[in-house]
Request: fold
Amino acid sequence: MAKKKKEKQISSTGKAYITAGMNNTIITITDDMGNTLFSGSSGKSGFKGSRKSTPYAATKASEQAGAMAFNAGVREVAVFVKGPGMGRISSIKALKTAGLNIVSISDQTPMPHNGCRPKNRRRV
Reply:
């Protein structure tokens, strides 16, 4: 006799972590405890190469992750943005269009207090 798989109980509130790098945008939606429920990225949505870093790719990735969360029952998210990438604002807007209610937005980009010596500037 096969055991019935118990469905996970997902709360209506959660957190959305957006990591906007120079080459990709990664969106992770977690519950209040910080356990990952859904994730998406520009690469996962079908973009390759330099198109992954565009705001449009970040929008598509956020819409996919937000839609999965909305269908599972998540309604409110607190957004935490990290990184200097181009997909920061557009991914927050896409979470809103996916039907999620955004409670708060906070920037967690790490800032050095004169730490390591930076790499040389790129010459093109």
